[in-house]
Design a protein that fits this description.
By secondary structure, the chain is of the alpha+beta class. Helix content is about 45%, strand content about 15%. It contains 27 helices and 17 strands. A 6-stranded mixed sheet has the order 10-11-9-12-13-14. It has a 5-stranded mixed sheet with strand order 1-5-2-4-3, with helices on both faces. A hairpin with a 6-residue loop joins strand 16 and strand 17. Helix 2 runs antiparallel to helix 3, helix 3 packs across helix 4 and helix 11 runs antiparallel to helix 13. The radius of gyration is 28 Å and the shape is globular.
Length: about 725
């Protein structure tokens, strides 16, 4: 693991004999590792903890940066934003820039050690007395001494070796210096410091590596066997170190799971907060009803009665896990003899709720398009007009960055609450915090009124039904930083959630900042990657696919503003497709896919037309190895016939209604084909005359797959 403590500040550019007692600087601070630290996860709580821990560390650094001088200003991100990126930019005033940077760095490192110690205490591997009476310096010293006492001996080295810290300072005179030039130089110097990393190799003996990160030695282990002799034999066969700490009764660790010190801290971060598992996300649309039903309570009583945890492992809601092997492996050995009775109880759940129980969920990741250029002010309009927006600010780029950080903070708070189903709940519980800031924003209030006005059955709308809509749990947000987002989504809400999140970005970020781009909100967009996976698929693999799909979406054309979806079937088959969010007429492509899914779910059309399209056109000589097809006119002429053959006519349905329904379906399907364009490999521009049959068929197959894994409310 790397240990990088690299900083740059412009002491060489200043004359010490004339330097004023206090000088204004631009300060850029960042920590790492980010992607690897977050992605190293076996459970959803690992994924959540990785981003939350980095957020707490950067928040501690921001707090110290602000406290040094009341005139210090955090430019980005919005300091009130709960989920923060791994960096911040500030305008600060200090007499000693080197000390200032070191203090901020020390605050970040101290916060990480403090979080690590709390994790060790929660895991029961160390006991630390209260330190609330210490000042910061005493607390840091005490924490370092306490960390050195944590067993086994290698734990402290693993914790101390994790954090990478980089910071850069440049003197800035608002009356003479151009902010944009200083900002660009600051970014270049930070990049230079990252290229001069210092390596520190941990001297660890050969042993079993951590089950979660695969890099460090496993220092904590939950044995699958009982009895001292059996445990020692198991440790020897697993190549564990002799001083490995055994955690015999911790349900946060699976049997036979070994964790490093860093991974143990992640696993026990926010121990009391339950984070939904992947099977719970997959069952989110129906699980509350199952748990509240008499058959659900009878079933769960087998697994919760007389146990330390009252929570049922959601994997037990899938019959494939009701086996002796699974029971013995996961701590239910005493129930193996009761399996026949448990099976009977499960069948009652299956008869009542089986059609609604999916084994698949979606992981969504999105990132603002060209954010590097946007943060640097590329394309901002006339500075003389924009400077009037904030007379006290020092330049149009700083104005823009401050407003962008604020808008992204408001959007992040909304996006998280939207997915978690907590919009009205948060407004009641946190009126003074970040949510209070959101509620006081006029743009947000107008947008929320627009959302409420679009709720179905508007004529029968009441405050209760509106609250029910706003607080419907659609998934779980892991990280919401404004210009990037990571979260789980239940398949029943996938397309609507994708559209709502993208539309909210437009309303809460793009439109309010459009004046910076001559009234063109299209300058601020984001692209998303979605991985749909079986609940048993390794989480780090699903995250890798979600990020890969995000990169695929960003390659669709120069303008981006797109999404890409991959379905990772349990059989190993993979379906991939990608589209821009809208066509040239502002029609949502997610809406087209959602409509097809709902019609398939309601059995108003069969999936025969999808199979027929694949059979007829994949064999054409005009389809090349990249899946592009040049004879698009044949597809346009054949699609209506195939769709009409597959459309089911309801009893008593008039010819006019049937014909209209047929035309609507044809429009949706043809638009998916029309927008399945290819891009010129050199210019990146759309080639509207060359369509991708592979993209189109994959989109239809994904719709059919989601139909099989979800059930329409009418069924």
């Amino acid at each position: 693991m790397l240990l990088a403590v690299v900083f740059c500040y412009t002491e060489l550019h200043l004359n010490a004999t004339v330097m004023p007692s206090s000088t204004q600087y631009l300060f850029l601070f960042t920590i790492g590792p980010v992607q690897s630290f977050i992605a190293q996860a076996r459970k959803t709580r690992d994924l959540y903890a990785g981003s939350a821990i980095l957020g707490e560390i950067i928040d501690a650094a921001i707090t110290v940066a602000k406290s040094h001088n009341q005139e210090n200003k955090i430019i980005v991100p919005d300091p009130d934003l709960k989920a923060k990126p791994n960096r911040f930019l500030a305008r600060i005033i200090t007499e000693d820039p080197r000390k200032f940077g070191n203090d901020v760095e020390q605050a970040a490192r101290s916060k990480w050690v403090s979080l690590a110690l709390k994790g060790f205490v929660d895991a029961g591997v160390c006991n630390i007395p209260g330190i609330c009476r210490f000042d910061n310096e005493q607390k840091q010293k005490f924490n370092c001494e306490a960390l050195a006492q944590v067993k086994p001996a290698g734990a402290a080295a693993q914790i101390e070796d994790l954090l990478e810290v980089y910071w850069v300072l440049l003197p800035f005179d608002g009356s003479t210096d151009k902010y944009q030039e200083k900002h660009d130089e600051l970014q270049k110097r930070l990049a230079a410091t990252k290229n001069t990393r210092q390596f520190n190799q941990i001297d660890e003996p050969p042993a079993r590596k951590c089950s979660l990160d695969g890099e460090r030695n496993a220092l904590y282990y939950r044995p699958a066997e009982s009895g001292r002799g059996a445990v020692l034999k198991e440790m020897h066969s697993k190549f564990l170190l002799p001083d490995t700490e055994l955690l015999n009764d911790f349900q946060l660790l699976d049997f036979g799971e070994g964790l490093s010190a860093v991974s143990l801290v992640k696993r026990f971060y926010a121990k009391g907060d339950g984070f939904p598992s992947t099977p719970r996300i997959a069952l989110l649309n129906i699980l509350d009803k199952i748990e509240a039903s008499s058959v659900g309570r009878d079933f769960s009583s087998f697994f919760t009665k007389g146990r330390s945890s009252s929570l049922l492992n959601e994997q037990l809601y899938f019959e494939e896990n009701l086996t002796p092997t699974y029971f013995r492996k996961n701590g239910y050995s005493d129930l193996v003899e009761k399996l026949p009775t448990i099976h009977k109880s499960y069948k009652c759940i299956e008869r009542e709720f089986g059609n609604h129980m999916s084994k698949y969920y979606a992981l969504l990741v999105f990132d603002g398009d060209s954010m590097g250029r946007i943060w640097s002010g590329d394309g901002i309009a006339d500075p003389n007009r924009l400077i009037e927006l904030h007379a006290r600010a020092s330049g149009k780029l700083q104005i823009f960055q401050q407003l962008l950080g604020q808008r992204l903070g408001i959007y992040a708070a909304y996006a998280k609450a939207y997915l978690d189903g907590a919009i009205t709940k948060l407004s009641n519980e946190d009126p003074e915090g970040i949510w209070g800031t959101v509620l006081n924003d006029s743009t947000y209030r107008k947008y929320l009124e627009k959302v409420i006005s679009q709720i179905d059955d508007a004529d029968d709308r009441s405050e209760q039904s509106v609250a029910l809509f706003l607080d419907m749990k659609k998934g779980k947000a892991i990280y919401a930083g404004g210009d990037d987002f990571l979260g789980f989504i239940n398949l029943n809400y996938l397309f609507s959630a994708m559209k709502d999140l993208r539309e909210a970005y437009y309303e809460l970020v793009s439109k309010p900042l459009a004046e910076f781009y001559d009234g063109n909100p299209a300058k601020l967009t984001f692209s998303a990657g979605i991985a749909i996976a079986h609940y048993k698929m390794p989480l780090n693999e699903v995250l890798k696919w979600a990020h890969e799909m995000e990169h695929e979406a960003k390659k669709i054309n120069e303008g981006k503003d797109a999404f890409a979806i991959a379905v990772l079937k349990h059989s190993g088959e993979i379906e991939k497709t990608r589209y821009n969010w809208k066509d040239e007429n502002d029609t949502w492509l997610t809406g087209d896919m959602d409509y097809i899914v709902r019609e398939l779910q309601a059995k108003k059309i069969s999936n025969n037309f999808i199979k027929a399209i694949a059979i007829e056109f994949r064999g054409l000589a005009e389809v090349d190895t990249n899946g592009t097809i040049t004879c698009s006119n044949l597809v346009y002429s054949e699609l209506p016939r195939l769709i009409k053959r597959s459309l089911n006519r309801d009893p008593g349905e008039t010819h006019d209604v049937y014909h209209q329904r047929c035309e609507v379906m044809i429009d949706h399907v043809q638009r998916l084909f029309d927008e399945a364009f290819t891009c010129n490999s050199i210019t990146g521009r759309k080639q509207t005359h060359v369509k991708s049959l592979t993209t189109f068929l994959s989109a239809l197959n994904i719709c059919d797959f989601i139909k099989r894994e979800t059930v329409h409310e009418q069924e």
